[in-house]
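Reading a protein record of the kind used here takes only a little practice. The record below shows the convention in full:
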Amino acid sequence: MTADDPPSGAGPAGPPSADPDRPLAVLVNPTAGRARHSGRLPDVLDRLATAGRPLRLLDAATPEQALARCRAAVADGVAGLVAVGGDGTVHQALQAVAGTGVPFGPVPAGTGNDFAADTGFPTDPLAAADTIAAALRDGRTSPVDLARMTTADGTVRWFGAVLAAGFDAVVNERANRMRWPRGPRRYDIAIMIELARLRPRRYRLVLDGAERYVDAVLVAVGNCASYGGGMRMCPAADPTDGLLDVVVVGPVTRTTLVRVKPRLYSGTHVTHPMVRTHRAATVELAADGIVGYADGERAGPLPVTVTAVPAAARLLR
């Protein structure tokens, strides 16, 4: 584990600090959700301030800066950390709070807000801020599991929602390499290119020590049910059961994959005969040429080992 990596396991789990002088740190991503909620930020901050704590605003221009500022705030002993943004912003904040006992609250203001939704926070940013402030005032937190992912070089990363490690990850990787066009069309083009190149890959999958090899076009490991803005890839995943859900889509044709994709939003894709689901506390996943994406963020190439860590975070709700 490198010096910049988070701790390897869950730490103390307790209520927010009773010291009224300890501030509430707030990480803000003003560009989240294409900035459609940026005008509501002053109101969000006003709602959070009703907790009776001074607010410490953490501004960051890059994900690296966001991570550094979150870790510094946690090290300083803040009363809690709030992330205002989407799953990418939440992902950076989770690296800082995982295993520390410092309470966390997401205010959904991004394109994808899957972790917040799947852990019971309101979808409206102001309502979510009210929930967080009330929990902080009352000294109330709820435990939630996180997934700890370790890559081949020993790097550790936490995620809250889903690790994508198949066709969806390949599309993300291509889209991130493209410089044109900008915006959502880049992903549409990446999907078309990768559909034309679609082929099953051989995966080594080890579930709680039981090894198997599968041919698949898509594999996902979920702590929560959803990713990508409401696609219920792992519909039965429960972030409080100490287990990970694994969904494997076998070797299907382009036409079948396109037909199955709309069913992701309802979670009914798991009834397709070419889809298999598994559940395990520890998942080892390997395949050639795949870079995993956790919570929509580039997480590193396979192989990886993912472990469910019960009560790794304390949520302000």
In short: Residues 7 and 14 are 17 Å apart (CA to CA).
